[in-house]
Amino acid sequence: MSLRFSLPKPALTVLAAIALIAAASITVGCGGDSSAPAAVDSSANLDAPCSHSFASLSEVQSAVKKAPPDAVLCLSAGDYGKLSLDAGSRPTRVTVRAEHPAGTTIEGAELVGDNLTLAGFVSTDGIQVMPGATGITVEHNRVTGGGEGIEAGPTDTTTVNDTRIVGNQLIGPFGEDAIHLNRYHDSNGDGIGILIEGNEITGVRENGAHSDCLQTGWVGDHIVFRKNCVPDNRCQGFFVKDQASLGGVSGPIHGIKVEDNLFLRNHEPCGAPLKSCGQPLYFQVAGPYSGFVMKRNTIWGDTVDSIAAFREGTGADTRIEDNVIYRLWTDTEMSPATLRDNTICEREAAEGGSWSTPSGETVACDLHFPNPTADDYRLGNGRGVDWAPAEEHYGP
After folding, report:
1. Rounded to 5 degrees, what angle do the CA atoms 216, 165, 87 make?
2. pTM of model > 0.85
3. How does pLDDT run across 340-355, given as a tens digit for each residue?
4. b vs e for 232-271, b when ≥16 Cβ sit within 10 Å of the residue's Cβ?
């Protein structure tokens, strides 16, 4: 169980090209219903009238900075190149979206400035939230390629502030991660530096680049990871660690909330070019951190490989509550943490590790879920997820 880190970007370019070829051979997903309500409330009504429609990248790009408050700028149906948007420093939101959900395809996007929403697109390359951006929302898109599917942002110094990544479909494999975060920050004091909510992440497969469904680095504050569906991968589904061992900015990380997420089936084949690879930990958090809350998550279906791992210390205010986890594991001192009302099959402490005494813990390895074939893992007893993917809508 080693902690691994990212490859340089040139290597990711090659691996992203390999991943694009490999993507055609794999079909995965949460099985969401396209007619169902969105998994989370949308800040950008994809059916709202367009303030103006454009038929070229240059037109919509030039219109963003001068757009009136709350404008909805639409890009007409078709296939386009990379979308580069600079909203400048603006106090009101501007939305750039596909004129018809999933009717417009772009080759990635670069988002700069303040209070900008990107919504409703199919993107065949990665979407980047650039350093210094504030109030960027990436919402209800389908991302199918790139070195990173969504990156917020490509920086190890300048922060990326008050970002929302919600309701998207991320379909791998990618060159590295589905979602990659650096230097996220809560600048408006609402307790959320980055919100990752109601996304579907599938087909992410270890290819030698430490291919994670979510990876963070270079320290951020106040990450909220909520109501995401993460099935059919070979990845670390949630991997948070500062990069103190690499020099530069280091922890502790303040504020980590992981709530109401579903992690299933992490046994997909290794990604090209690898023929063999180790089994990633589906959930891994490494200290130092404070303000950690893990509540009502379900990590199940792969027996001992359905694992939540805690490493390199914990905070005195850590709470692990109301989860359904097959295997809870640590090799660090977790005695300051509160463990309450969890259902587990195995709770382990490797050499150097220990747990606090749990309260309300149920030990059970054979649980009766309503409909696992449809990924309905609700227990209805206040533990684990309280939703089923068939009731949700991901992507455009």
Report:
1. 105
2. yes
3. 999 999 999 999 999 9
4. bbbbbbbbbbbbbeeeebebebbbbbbbbbbbbbbebbbb
